[in-house]
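Worked example

This section walks through a single chain of length 454. The input is the sequence exactly as stored; nothing has been trimmed or padded.
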Amino acid sequence: MAEENLLVDLSDDMSSIEISSSTISPTNQQVSPISSEDRILAEALQKEEEQEFKNWPPQEGGGEGPPASSQQQQQQQAWADPAEEFADIAKYGIIEVSGSDVNGRPVIVVSACKLPPIKQLDHKRFLSYLKQTLDRYVEADYSLIYLHHGLSSSNKPSFSWLVDAYKEFDRKYKKNLKTLYIIHPSMFIKILFNLFKPIISAKFGRKVKYCNYLTDISDTISLQQISIPDVVRKHDEEMMKKVKVKTDEANEQPIAIPSTQQFGVSLEFLEENNPGLTIPRVVKESVEYLKENGLEVEGIFRRSPSTIELKNIQEIYNSGNPAVFHDPHLAASTLKAFLRRLPEPLMTYEVYQYVLNIAHVDEETRVRVVASVLQKLPERNSKILKYIMDFLTIVVQHASSNRMTSSNLAVVFGPNLIWSQDQEASLFAMGHINTFIRIMIDNHEQLFAIDSEC
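Given that input, the structure is written out below as tokens.
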């Protein structure tokens, strides 16, 4: 009986997507109907996927999705305010902002396993909640991670809702999305993507990247910073056990780092191999270029160059050769990437909890508390942070042209200046980090010495 209901559900969904495709195709051309072979294959794959999740959810409580801890619920609800009407959706933690990738772009994580049963979620309101959450970040380039494991017939949205969602998210959401990582994709979801091709632009399609394992994204996104549900981690571990990894002994040997290396090395390393330079070369040269060419550029620090351009400029720096910028966005992204690739954040792991505690400090005493936190930084870190803050203050002075207020800069630089050593990033944490950075920018003269190198 359950299998019959599943096939009926799938058939209804397939019908809805077939009708919707013909009506919203950009060219308004007739879309070929789904063949019986495709329908049968999709149904079989869905049955196979349902079998994997037949015991879902693993927690007690029957019809409810994975419960968040009381602390997580408090954090998510705190961030959901002032949009209190969405607190009932925010409590599930379906969508999280998890720091930045190595290029300094915000990372947004959507977990299918956290979707509650269909009858417990108003999907129209859920779509509004998604848009409100994304609106804080989509004005800049961002990456999206979709954790597919845990989607079942009990909690999956209908195909017609997916079509409506794609139509609802206008150009700004799609344009600034750099990569959509689909983790643990099933054959079924790949077929669905093919079915959606008539309504998805080719450019957007190229942004989709299938990743069979979490490690597939580890080169660009720190897995420690991502909010990954335990059930997804366990599934990934089971998947990895099935893979036979051949280890080359030569690869186990530590790779010697050239003395010219600039990205991904500690500040101590840079100081030792670049005597006399108190400000790292990448920071100095990118800031100097931006002062001359980027202050009037609208959305500076919010746009990214191509991945190839960013990779090339990093290779030039790491080889010790002179680097030349021809684009303000490339210089801005290079600065963010340098900060994000530091083995330890510029503001250090030590002060992370102090930064988060800013939320519990009264407004009138926050500046004094921030000053005391900054005193905990090593001298070399303080000098570099001051140099960057000096520059960001100049950027804010041109906000009428570049639209980068202190709040906007805090959102961009917060996850690149500080992150936790062992805690996942969250909307709750990001809000407090951004507040701390904004206070530093707004009270620059009080917090930093009057004399400036910028």
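What to look for: Residues 275 and 322 are 17 Å apart (CA to CA).
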